[in-house]
Amino acid sequence: MQFIPIPLFKQPHLRQYAQQLYQQAFAAEDRFPFWSLRLFSLRAAIRFDAIADKGNQPIGFVYLIRGEGLLFVLYFAVDAQCRSQGYGSRIIVALEQQYPSDTIVLDIRAPDAAAADALQRQKRLDFYLRNGFQIAPYQWVEEAERYAVLYKGNSFNPQSFATLLAKTTFNLVRPTLQAA
Q1: Where are the beta strands (DSSP E) in the chain?
Q2: Which residues form the N-acetyltransferase domain (predicted)?
Q3: Tell me, what CATH number does 120's domain have?
């Protein structure tokens, strides 16, 4: 498995693949404009990578923000045709190997039995818990939605998390974290 940077102007097939998967895997209200992801990925602290299997066939992508001792996984998607084959777990292991001193942080829509996608939310949480993530004692609150913050590593520092996002997004993303 390899991580292949998605360049701003080269390799349009990777960019198109990632954009299509991005639109399929994430609800519209959870997506930034795709052009902004590409633009922000020019920053040294941000990686936007396609993930390919042994045959160089794209099977997913990750969008990572690194700093403050954290690796924030803003977006992580595996192609629907490749799910339940262990790729997601192997990608997490690969991230741990590439960033052994960083705490990996991500957020997911908080479990909510009344939500239309309650089963999907629970499955996503179960996947991350099976892969060694812990639930942080904070939730990211954005408008009417709550996101569970998960981490894998030594600890989760909410101030470092907020600082990282503010610095790398020119203060466009400023998470409101509340005790869970």
Answers
A1: 2-5, 46-52, 58-67, 70-78, 103-109, 134-142, 145-152, 176-179
A2: 4-152
A3: 3.40.630.30
Q: Tens digits of per-residue pLDDT, 111-170?
A: 999 999 899 999 999 999 999 999 999 898 887 788 999 999 988 898 898 888 887 777
- 119: tokens are 């089963």
- pTM summary value: 0.91
The partner residues of 104 in beta bridges, in order of sequence, read 71, 152
Fill in the amino acid letter for 169.
T
User: Strands 70-78 and 103-109, how do they pair?
Assistant: parallel
Split into its structural domains, the chain has a count of: 1
Task: Say if residues 74 and 105 touch (Cβ distance below 8 Å).
Answer: no
Q: Which amino acid is at 121?
A: R
Alpha carbons within 13 A on the beta-carbon side of 82:
19
Tokens standing for residue 167 = 């610095």
